[in-house]
Amino acid sequence: MPDQKADGRRFETGHNHAEAEKLLFDEAQHLDDKEWGAWAELYEADAEYWVPSWLDEYELVTDPDTQVSYIYHTSRAQLQERIGRIQSRKSITALPLPRTLHMISNVVLTDIDDRNIDARSCWTTHVFDPRTRRQHLHFGTYRHRLILSDGRYRIARKKIIIMNDCIPTVVDFYSI
Amino acid sequence: MNVHTPLDGLIDDRPSDKAFHVSRSAFTDPDIFDLEMKHIFEATWSFVGLETQIPRPHDYITTFIGRQPVLLMRDGEGNIGCFLNTCRHRATMVCPFKRGRQKFHVCRYHGWAYDSAGRNISVTDKDDGQYPADFDNADRNLFPVARLESYRGLIFASLSADVPSLSDYLGDARAFIDLVADQSPVGQLEFVPGDITYTFDANWKLQFENGLDYYHFNSTHSSYVDILAQRTKSGDATGFTSERADEVEGQGSFNFSNGHAVNWSIKRQMRYGRALASDPDGLAEVKARVGDTRLKWMLRQRNLTIFPNLQIIDISSAQLRTWRPLSADKTEMTSHCLAPVGESPAARRFRIRAYEDFFNPSGLATSDDNVMYEFCQTGYAAQAGDTLGHLRGLDPGIGLPGDHVSELGISPVDYAFGKPGFGGETNFHSGYREWRRLLQHATGEAADA
């Protein structure tokens, strides 16, 4: 393990782990606060956003080109398409929008090189639907690939694993 | 004797008066739900899987027919069997896994074992068991379903023997299964790997109707329609096809016997590309093999319902979905990306992306449908009069131009055709008439008993 200063900065690579970790929390907060423009800006223009499905009880799909995913996007523009659908107030899934609360913990950061950090974390999202008065809990793990560009971290890749994959009615970017 | 049953008045079907109404209670009444499970789902043909899901000896999958767990497996000789997934000893579910491959299934409770043909091959410590003398003569094999047959690799099972052959049951709906299967150079269909299961808090018949409903598309899916329009502007026309200038644009449907129906549309310009058309070489191969007319129908949007639990939607991608009703107001859906075996990697990638785009609880269209079913379920609880939801198309309107029926070589029991905004609802009637027939058949027997 490399030595670590109190402010989270590592000697070898210069990565600021406290800042990298904060990006994960910022992302969660943007989603819960419905600041979706700011949320999308956390992503690189060619970011990969992947929510794989499960092959069976134990294995996730591993290849989006030959296996089915819940969501597989390869650009920020595709995330913005989803945002636009919700903001148009035409999608019935958003009338009314549920309240969500993302919790992230067990964050483990691994430096990849001078520019890239991998982050593995655990997430839960509590979803309350004011229409039905029902609440759901989605949970799983995140794998972020963060990239340092122009002095700040952005998301180059995110993989969202949903552990409880019998989905109640609808699942979208804001609820996972 | 005229027996009053809970079914009286559920379907108000008077063709001569051009009336068709479905009672609100058919969607909400738990007693009706119990009758549906017993006398429809557990008494007629149900889709249970694809042969390509269990290609090798000893492969298996588990699923349900109505409320009842079943184990579908291939034995050592390659024959497919379907058995109730319950141990003969103390009813334990014998196989708790979704899928796998094993020669023997051993009940974890007391160790009774079965082979992949469903035969009991071991009763633990039988000789020490002080069993009655005739125990050795008792049938200890897994209970087989009453009927099991396949069509084009689609496996159907029935828990009742009192059903026609699968071929007769499917009737001319087979032509629309063929239009999907024949997109494969080897005539086979497979599921793209990846399990998708979701629930909605509404009656299963909302899904049954929606799969045959074009009327809802522009309103329910208006946000998706906007996205499609934006994408078209951006210029990606991969897989786009068009109809010949002499084809009359419109929407049509065929009703078949035993509750099946299909709706389809003829559009001069599609709103999205098609996996089949995304690969020019693959398209040319299919065209050479099936000819212009059948290719034309392959490239038309077609929503096929095989009563009571199967829909195949062939649009930008292909989806095969089944439902398992859990209660009058809760339904579990299983959705698969359906694909022709042997298509090119590029076409497969297009198919998967298009499938994820539209379908699934995370897709841009299906998610809206799921929420809409719940709006309907809440609304059906209103103690109000009949809905007006099954009437579009009862007037003959512009009728059926062209040679749609003869092109396909089918004899539907009914058809409808209208303008592009038609969205006929008479294609639901076939399923409701079969629904009523099965329930009345069963309650009639009960009344005689």
Structural description of this entry:
The complex is a heterodimer of chains A (176) and B (449). Helices cover 19% and strands 41% of the residues of chain A. Chain A is of the alpha+beta class and 176 residues long. A 6-stranded mixed sheet of chain A has the order 2-1-6-5-4-3. The two termini of chain A are 32 Å apart. Chain B is of the alpha+beta class. Chain B is 28% helix and 25% strand. Chain B has 12 helices and 21 strands. In chain B, the strands form 5 sheets. In chain B, strands 13, 14, 15, 16, 17, 18, 19, 20 and 21 form a 9-stranded antiparallel sheet that branches. Chain B has a 4-stranded antiparallel sheet with strand order 6-5-4-7, with no helix packed on it. Chain B has a 3-stranded antiparallel sheet with strand order 3-12-11, with no helix packed on it. Chain B is globular, with a radius of gyration of 23 Å. Chain A binds chain B through residues 51-57, 61, 64-72, 81-82, 84-86, 88, 90-93, 132, 134, 165-172, and chain B through 97-100, 192-201, 220, 222-224, 226-227, 230, 332, 336-337, 345, 348-349, 352-353, 355-356, 360-362, 364, 367-368, 370-372, 374-375. Strand 7 of chain A pairs parallel with strand 14 (196-200) of chain B.
